[in-house]
């Protein structure tokens, strides 16, 4: 009996061990997706083909058969959820799909409860995170990754404002939110326009008409795949597929057109110039072989669509699950489910929730899935920490000339390139924009130049530009006699800059103010910020509080606050006698005295005994004679004709220079100079005197808020006439001690005033610019145009045309010594003196040389030749020449008398 019992137990243990060690004959997987959809029509045959290939492959699962249970979600969250329950009743170990992000959210919750891994090949909603749904895995990329590529594409072409159109579901909202986050990093603005889930052509038309009221013309379209391409058909009907527009599409468009069984030329014609993204699928022999099988499947009628990237990913998803199950079975040998007590307690007859079992080792299978690392049809299959597949990047496609062209590639490692992205995985790096490159793109309208991407206005709705209706200083900007004609210096600058903007800018000037008082410029800029005006053109100072609410162009005029005050006579300086001449004039005059001294000595030395004697005496005589001519006290007289000729010219020049010096010095000592008890802004603040300012400008805010001057000391003034009256009255008679205003106004005021002047230097630095709405692209283009005007000198010419009709006030102010005499005024006299002096010296030298030659000839006739070297002969001649020059003229004449011996004459002592 004991032996029989032992034998029974032994057999029982063997049977249990055999059963436990035996691999299961089959394993169930489920799939929930929409059959009749662009993605579903490619995914369904692909999934079935994958199951077929796995069951035929002896290298995987080792005899265990994969059984597939599929349910149609019909693009409905409720139907999809019921389908998920139905496949889970079959005790599936994994759920594949769905492609809809909304349905994926619901199934992910169910999968979490039953611990069944869910692997989606098409749900791209960024909010399907691993933290919230730990059993959710993606064999495609999240839209956050795609929107990074889209934002980089927008940044690559420099667009700063876009319109995003999306379907108002989980995928659409969250995808565009991810795009918004990426564009924010590039300081770009996004306008979001949404369509309902079941939109029709009328809704598309209304939305596109609404978008025309916005400035941007760069559209990012993020919809669900649509084989009829209704969106772009409506855009074409509205004539929005021309060169004023840019159309960018996420991968829904590439998925759609890749799925066309036969390329529909009519559909593609509506897409001319559209640029889109497509998941990059590297070429491989496995992919080519599968596509060949796919064409056979199409011929048999088992597939009604061309293959797209999501179909390839669906095929790889099944293989990913199969590889993981194979490893799971190798480790755990069996697949077990356990009952859920909470579901068992729910007594329901229809739903039969009690059939739902928890996958006991679901976490283990999930880990096996996440460890997958192989190459499939869609590329390398490996998961990152977010449980998304490591993407190979995106193709940048361009639909042009009825064909789909790949113009480049994008990856998060290298950015844009015309070469396919590297298949090796790596962490994202900061790539330089300089290295980015794409092939030429044909944009809507057939142009290859980068579209502007926005419109400022059209003729139906021109820009409304606010301009100050000034009551004073009207040369800057104002309305002409209520004629609705606006003119002025600022207007001319705007019109010239507008010509350099590379597109038409329809506009309409709108005067701001009543014309009786100068308007408040803070209110004008505030109206631009509040969209009452599209822009403001005028003498608008660029100050901090205004830059916070509007964007300014490049300054077209430099300005700053200055002090204007009355002037009085200044005390004479100890060195005032030097002021009539400039430094150059003094130097040239002094050099002229020295030159005359030397020339007169040369001309008079041979004939005038007063210019002979010891060297020291001759030097003193030479310079005393020259400088005494200034005071007409010279005792020496000139004897030679050439010396007298030079003296006549020199005395004439000296007379002119002396008279000019006297007149200039008299003027300097008698005219009023710019001086005042106020020496600068600090002394003005400390004086407690009333201060005038121009009403409407930022002067008041600066004086009260920055310099803390009490408002009671500030007197508003409107016109130049009020300026003059207040300054003449002075602080003790109801006027002001000084006026603080911007430099351009002050220069215009001082043009016709001689009793007032600018004290010190500008104590603020600012400029005038044109105000635009925040982030207006026109501000950048107008700034570029203003810089071009400055470089070409056109800004200066406009300024002279308005303010330099009688001489520029700025030039007068910069000339600190208007009574000084400059060398340029006397260069003719000095030239005359130089010519006469040079001519006299030339005649003198010619005469002396002629005499020396005669002397040498006579000497050779009477003297016997001596044998000397040529060098010695030359040096002797030179020394003899200088000795000859030093001889008195009377002695020279005697040498040439016939009765006298020249040799004996030359032996005479020198006097």
TrEMBL record:
One of its GO terms (molecular function) is signaling receptor activity. Residues 464-805 form the Ionotropic glutamate receptor C-terminal domain. Residues 1-21 form the signal peptide. The chain crosses the membrane at residues 583-603, 648-669, 824-849. Keywords: Glycoprotein, Ion channel, Ion transport, Ligand-gated ion channel, Membrane, Receptor, Signal, Transmembrane, Transmembrane helix, Transport. GO terms for cellular component: plasma membrane. It holds the Pfam family ANF_receptor. It comes from the Eukaryota. CDD domains: GluR_Plant (cd13686), PBP1_GABAb_receptor_plant (cd19990). The keyword Ion transport applies. SUPFAM superfamilies: Periplasmic binding protein-like I (SSF53822), Periplasmic binding protein-like II (SSF53850). InterPro entries: ANF_lig-bd_rcpt, GABAb_receptor_plant_PBP1, Glu/Gly-bd, GPCR_3, Ionotropic_Glu_rcpt, Iontro_rcpt_C, Iontropic_Glu_rcpt_pln, Peripla_BP_I. It is a multi-pass membrane protein. SMART domains: PBPe (SM00079). Gene3D superfamilies: 1.10.287.70, 3.40.50.2300, Periplasmic binding protein-like II (3.40.190.10). It is found in: Membrane. The keyword Ion transport applies. Glutamate-gated receptor that probably acts as non-selective cation channel. Belongs to the glutamate-gated ion channel (TC 1.A.10.1) family. PANTHER family: IONOTROPIC GLUTAMATE RECEPTOR (PTHR18966). This is Glutamate receptor. It comes from Manihot esculenta.
């Amino acid at each position: 009996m004991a032996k029989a019992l032992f034998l029974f137990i032994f057999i029982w243990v063997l049977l249990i061990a055999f059963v436990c060690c035996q691999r299961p004959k089959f394993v169930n997987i489920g799939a929930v997706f929409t059959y009749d959809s662009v993605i579903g029509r490619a995914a369904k045959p692909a999934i079935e083909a994958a199951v077929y290939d796995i069951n035929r492959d002896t290298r995987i699962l080792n005899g265990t058969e994969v059984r597939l249970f599929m349910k149609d979600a019909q693009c409905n969250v409720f139907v999809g959820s019921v389908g998920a329950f139905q496949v889970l009743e079959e005790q599936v170990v994994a759920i594949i799909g769905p492609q809809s992000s909304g349905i994926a959210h619901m199934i992910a919750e169910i999968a979490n409860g039953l611990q069944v891994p869910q692997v989606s090949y098409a749900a791209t909603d960024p909010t399907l995170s691993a933290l919230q749904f730990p059993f959710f895995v993606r064999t495609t990329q999240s839209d956050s990754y795609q929107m990074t590529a889209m934002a980089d594409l927008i940044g690559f072409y420099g667009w700063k404002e876009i319109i995003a159109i999306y379907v108002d579901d989980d995928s659409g909202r969250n995808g565009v939110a991810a795009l918004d986050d990426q564009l924010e990093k590039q300081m770009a603005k996004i306008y979001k326009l949404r369509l309902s889930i079941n939109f029709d052509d009328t809704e598309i038309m209304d939305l596109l008409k609404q978008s025309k009221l916005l400035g941007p013309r760069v559209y990012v379209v993020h919809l669900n795949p649509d084989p009829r391409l209704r969106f772009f058909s409506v855009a074409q009907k509205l004539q929005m597929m021309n060169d004023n527009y840019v159309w960018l599409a996420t991968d829904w468009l590439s998925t759609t057109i890749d799925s066309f069984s036969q390329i529909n030329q009519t559909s593609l014609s509506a897409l001319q110039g559209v640029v889109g993204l497509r998941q990059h699928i590297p070429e491989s022999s496995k992919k080519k072989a599968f596509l060949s099988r796919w064409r056979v499947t199409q011929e048999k009628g088992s597939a009604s669509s061309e293959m797209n990237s999501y179909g390839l990913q669906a095929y790889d998803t099944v293989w990913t699950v199969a590889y993981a199950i194979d490893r799971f079975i190798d480790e755990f040998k069996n697949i077990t489910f356990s009952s859920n007590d909470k579901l068992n307690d729910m007594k329901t007859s229809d739903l039969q929730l009690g059939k739902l079992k928890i996958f006991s080792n679901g976490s283990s299978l999930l880990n096996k899935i996440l460890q997958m690392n192989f190459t499939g049809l869609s590329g390398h299959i490996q998961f990152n920490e977010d449980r998304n597949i490591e993407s190979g990047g995106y193709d940048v496609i361009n639909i042009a000339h009825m064909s789909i062209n790949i113009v480049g590639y994008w990856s998060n490692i290298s950015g844009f390139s015309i070469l396919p992205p590297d298949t090796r995985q790596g962490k994202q790096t900061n790539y330089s924009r300089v290295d980015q490159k794409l092939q030429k793109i044909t944009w809507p309208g057939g142009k290859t130049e980068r579209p502007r991407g926005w419109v400022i206005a059209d003729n139906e709705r021109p820009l409304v530009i606010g301009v100050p209706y000034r009551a004073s200083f009207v040369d800057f900007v104002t309305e002409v006699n209520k004629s609705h004609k606006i003119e002025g210096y600022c207007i001319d600058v705007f019109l010239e800059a507008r010509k350099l903007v590379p597109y038409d800018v329809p506009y309409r000037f709108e005067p701001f103010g009543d014309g009786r008082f100068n308007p408040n410029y803070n209110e004008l800029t505030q109206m631009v910020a509040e969209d009452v005006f599209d822009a403001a053109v005028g003498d608008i100072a660029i100050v901090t509080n205004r830059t916070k609410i509007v964007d300014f162009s490049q300054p077209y005029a430099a300005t700053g606050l200055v002090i204007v005050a009355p002037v009085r006579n200044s005390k004479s300086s100890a060195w005032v006698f030097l002021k009539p001449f400039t430094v150059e004039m003094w130097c040239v005059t002094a050099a002229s005295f020295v030159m005359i001294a030397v020339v007169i000595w040369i001309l008079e030395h041979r004939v005038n005994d007063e210019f002979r004697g010891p060297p020291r005496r001759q030097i003193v005589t030479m310079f005393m004679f020259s400088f005494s001519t200034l005071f007409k006290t010279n005792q020496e007289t000139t004897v030679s004709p050439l010396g007298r000729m030079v003296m006549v010219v020199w005395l004439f020049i000296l007379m002119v220079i002396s008279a000019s010096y006297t007149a200039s010095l008299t003027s300097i000592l008698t005219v009023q100079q710019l001086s005042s008890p106020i020496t600068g802004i600090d002394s003005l603040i400390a004086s407690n005197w009333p201060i005038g300012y121009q009403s409407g400008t930022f002067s008041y805010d600066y004086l009260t808020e920055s310099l803390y001057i009490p408002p009671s000391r500030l007197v508003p003034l409107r016109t130049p006439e009020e300026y003059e009256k207040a300054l003449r009255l002075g602080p003790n008679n109801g006027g002001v001690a000084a006026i603080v205003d911007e430099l351009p106004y002050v220069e215009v005021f001082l043009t016709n005033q001689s009793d007032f002047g600018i004290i010190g230097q500008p104590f603020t630095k600012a400029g005038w610019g044109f105000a635009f709405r925040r982030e207006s692209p026109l501000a950048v283009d107008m700034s570029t145009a203003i810089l071009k005007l400055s470089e070409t000198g056109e800004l200066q010419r406009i300024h002279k045309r308005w303010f330099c009709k009688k001489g520029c006030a700025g030039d007068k102010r910069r000339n600190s010594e208007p009574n000084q005499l400059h060398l340029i005024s006397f260069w003719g006299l000095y030239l005359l003196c130089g010519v006469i002096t040079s001519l006299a010296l030339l005649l003198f030298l010619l005469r002396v040389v002629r005499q020396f030659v005669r002397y040498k000839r006579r000497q050779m006739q009477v003297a016997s030749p001596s044998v000397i070297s040529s060098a010695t002969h030359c040096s002797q001649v030179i020394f003899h020449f200088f000795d000859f020059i030093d001889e008195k003229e009377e002695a020279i004449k005697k040498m040439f008398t016939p009765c006298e011996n020249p040799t004996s004459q030359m032996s005479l002592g020198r006097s």
